[in-house]
Amino acid sequence: MPSKTFVPAFEAKVGNWTYYSCLMSYAQVAREINFAHELGGNRDLGTMIQRGVGTRTQEITEYLLTNENRFLGALIIAVWGGDPNYLPVTMDAENQAVLQGLDRNFGVLTFDGTQQFFALDGQHRLKAIKDAIKQNPELGNEDINVIVVPHFDTADGRRRTRRLFTNINRNAKSTNLQENIALDEDDSFAILTRRLLDEDDFLKRDRVVLVFSKVGQDGELVLAQRSINQASPAWSTIAVLYDIVKEIGYDLPCTAGVAKQRATDELLDQSFELLTVRLHELLDACGNLRERYLAALSGKDLRAPKGRDGAGHPFMRPAVQNQVAKVVRHILESGTLEWLEIMKRLSALEWKMTAAPFSSMWIETPEGTKAKGKMASGNTQLLYDLLQVHLAPRSKAQISRALRAYSDVMKAKYPITPEDLFALLPVDAD
């Protein structure tokens, strides 16, 4: 049967939080405080409430082991379970007059022994303490201040704790973009991105969207950025999906209002419905991506078929995904075409890497065959310009400039004639 835990603590309040300032030994910290993924968190985006531990803890570990002036700032930890109970303590009558008011909010925080602690802030310090004690157990007798906040393992509880984590780290060491996408409860586009990963029939499938690029055994957790290994089974990454959501959702109901302030649930629900329709239409217009992905043996086979890399699907490449989304937004904002007409023109493109306009991002291998090659990651602006003239050209001069740029960069003639692209011009174009 679990034994009760007693921790001396000061009770305090700030904003809508009640928290407790406690004293714990390094040994107790190492033994009882965990990383969130050890408690069944982080591996699932929907329950992720902290960023993973990076690899730069060795310096802190050495500091603890070798510096007699060592000192670490307070850890901020969340606790769930354990039936926490705060018992205020008052001074005895003999000392009451001298210590009047100094015992305010002082007491003991008790748990029934089933509690679980995890770090909200100070994950690197926590990892260093755990590692240092393994090398020098005597460090376990030293103390550190720990700030304890309650956490409820529910959807609302995780949302509240995520927001606290993000706010703490924004005002201290900034979280990176990927962490904000996974955690931010005020950024509407981050909220919608996570909801797509949780609820969309295609995107919630295992390994369709790469969320983590690394999950280590000792707490290391790295969120995926904007690139995918050619052999990856994923369609895209969480960062690129966020970019796409921002581009095609620039005018959603949730974008009205104060920046960095959470939209209402009603506006978020309306936005999610509209966004889901747009995203499905975009995926289908871009070479029937959803159907082809589900029918393929693997994501790798669709991205770069063995021995025929150039026949791979361009919309399996994050660089292409980003440029397509940017161009779609540009055309919509300029009022040149409506959404459905843009989708129709996207559908008319030949969706393979060696075909125009995607050939602008494809470099032949030294063997001289387009069947084998690699991405030209520096040519994103060229692809953007060519997509514009394929989808919604404004003038013959614009088309000529784009085709000339292709010839200059690729040292080859553009596969599509200017006359074919002129046919896409508005009637009143020059």
UniProtKB/TrEMBL annotation:
InterPro entries: DGQHR-contain_dom, DNA_S_mod_DndB. CDD domains: dndB_like (cd16414). This is DGQHR domain-containing protein. It comes from Actinacidiphila guanduensis.
